[in-house]
């Protein structure tokens, strides 16, 4: 079998004629086998994928080719066949063609070379079909494996998403006349946007919005790091007299250091705020975050300005701290830049103008805003979108 | 918006990185590699970034540019020039604090007067400066012959 030019099956009920043909083929370097009993042939064909080519006598006793054709069709043979007949008659040739023969020879076979050439062609064709089938099987296998892997990754991401949702603060959170709420829409399962708010001592609430560069798991993990930093500093304030949490600038500097130390090339734009519920004042700081926070009151809507680099890019960062008196009734809205992507205008400056205008026209409640901005029916966001609302009501 | 492209061209150690359209990177290793190779070259003398035809830049790309500026400063002691003449893009890079990382020009870099003040490797000889200025002049003149010298760095990226 090995080292032969191919594996040829001769089907002929005339034993001496078959042996002579087999010998000719064997001399040309083919592994040959003869089957004289046609009923046996069916069985051989069914269980022999090694076969390269079949040489079959057309004028066999007891064989109805019409019936054989059905049997052969059921077998779905991928083996090329050469049909040999005693007569060069049209109906014989038609029968051979209908049987799907690759070639047709008439006895006596005078041109031996032509027959061998034909066998060689059939063997090559058979090899190609085999290779094709093998690569198809390989592909199908790889595809199945990939699907499995993707499924697993998806489940993993969904689990991660559940964990991330758990890390977000309660929404809404009511504190006297102040209301805090948030919405986070990830572009994939896990979001690089994160927001948090929590009380510090008896009169303060610290809040932040962070948008970590990139998407997906690594960005989501970075948000965990930031949440952890804020929780740690809150605890340090309560237990160790460390006032970092009371200063948005100090918190941004800490966040900057933590992200730089992480050294994974992730940076984040942030807004950090400290609300004093007794004085009704806000101390805040902005780190490269767009759009800037929007303050809505009876006087209309305005951006809370603030300059500063994103955190996690450079060592020596400078941040501004702003202290403002808040109106008696107000709504403060912080969004991540994903919101800008879904606004109609083309460039950033027009988007910022449009965004502020939405607040001017319809800002009685966060719910209304979410509807106005089309956030309640975002199918697939091109980027993560997060929103944090802080309101003071009568 | 136009599909984003990142193009790069160099001559005599002077490099120009040009971003056009809406630049979004999912994988940026190719471009990162290019920047590293550029900074490792013994004849590296200057690089500037041209954002005049950029319509949008995502956070990954901004991070990549910031890293480039930081490395140029750390290794060669100068801040690369960045040209931005689209107010929206200027607003974006300023909000990120890029004016502290780059020498920011809010005008078109093809203005011949601009080429006289290319920030380059500190301590360079006057002859080197002249050569770099000339190289930038060649790179920025807008003939089609020169345009063909820009390599598309994003073509090399596997993008979905």
From TrEMBL, chain B:
MF terms in GO: anti-sigma factor antagonist activity
Domain of life (superkingdom): Bacteria
Pfam families xref list: STAS (PF01740)
InterPro entries from the UniProt entry: STAS_dom, STAS_dom_sf, UCP029548_STAS-type
Domain STAS: start-end pairs: 4-131
Record-linked PANTHER family: ANTI-SIGMA FACTOR ANTAGONIST TM_1081-RELATED (PTHR33495:SF2), ANTI-SIGMA FACTOR ANTAGONIST TM_1081-RELATED-RELATED (PTHR33495)
Record protein name field: STAS domain-containing protein
Species: Kineobactrum salinum
